[in-house]
């Protein structure tokens, strides 16, 4: 079945890297992976590669940002659904984890991401609050866009 597109949203980001010496990328070990990611006038995100790939562990890396995007998208949909369904959320925490594997050729791919939201509600039905995670997962456009499974192991606490 062909999907009918009603509207297109475009997102533009700017990535900037500059060599820290005139040597540039002359050698694989000789250049910094540190760079900045920006969107308009928003504060820059200082990024690098994962330390396993010669990066700076004091900066965010693309793998962490992918996992964070999945977690954030799920949370935003979930909060929207709760507000529309009489569930009063007062706190939402998630410690998400992504797994990436190297294949025989040394190429890495994400194979899964697990979201583990812990939600504290002040009012509303606990079972309904838990069910809304399934709907949030279905609606999360980032989760629908990746080619690996994203699982949600949620917990609901009462205030």
CATH class descriptor name of the largest domain: Alpha Beta
Main sheet makeup: 3 strands, antiparallel
Number of domains: 2
Distance between the termini: 45 Å
Architecture of the largest domain, according to CATH? 2-Layer Sandwich
What fraction strand? 25-35%
How does the overall form come out from the CA principal axes? elongated
Average pLDDT value?
93
Given as residue ranges, the uncertain stretches (5+ residues, pLDDT < 50) are none
- Given the helix and strand composition, which structural class is it? alpha/beta
CATH superfamily name of the largest domain? Answer: K homology (KH) domain
Helix content: 25-40%
What's the structural blueprint in terms of helices and strands?
Layout: E1 14-16, E2 35-38, E3 45-47, H1 62-84, E4 88-94, E5 97-102, E6 108-115, E7 117-123, H2 126-139, H3 141-145, E8 150-152, E9 155-158
Parallel strand pairs: 6-8, 7-9
Antiparallel strand pairs: 1-2, 2-3, 4-7, 5-6
Characterise the protein shown here.
By secondary structure, the protein is α/β, with parallel strands linked by helices. The protein folds into two domains: 60 residues, K homology (KH) domain (GMP Synthetase, Chain A, domain 3, 2-Layer Sandwich), CATH 3.30.300.20; 97 residues, GMP Synthetase, Chain A, domain 3, CATH 3.30.300.20. The protein is built from three helices and nine strands, in the order βββαββββααββ. The mean pLDDT is 93.
Précis, in short:
By secondary structure, the chain is of the alpha/beta class. The protein has helices at 62-84, 126-139, 141-145, and strands at 14-16, 35-38, 45-47, 88-94, 97-102, 108-115, 117-123, 150-152, 155-158.
């Amino acid at each position: 079945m062909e999907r009918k597109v009603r509207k297109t949203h475009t997102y533009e980001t700017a990535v900037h890297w500059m060599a820290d010496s005139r040597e540039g990328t002359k050698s694989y070990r000789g250049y910094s992976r540190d760079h900045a990611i920006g969107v308009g006038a928003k504060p820059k995100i200082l990024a690098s590669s994962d330390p396993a790939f010669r990066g700076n562990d004091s900066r965010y890396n693309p793998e962490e940002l992918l996992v964070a995007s999945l977690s954030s998208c799920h949370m935003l949909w979930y909060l929207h659904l709760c507000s529309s369904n009489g569930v009063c959320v007062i706190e939402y925490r998630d410690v998400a984890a992504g797994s990436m594997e190297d294949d025989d050729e040394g190429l890495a791919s994400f194979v899964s991401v697990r979201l583990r939201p812990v939600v504290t509600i002040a009012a509303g039905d606990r079972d309904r609050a838990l069910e809304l995670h399934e709907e949030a997962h279905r609606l999360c456009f980032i989760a629908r866009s990746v080619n690996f499974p994203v699982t949600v192991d949620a917990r609901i606490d009462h205030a």
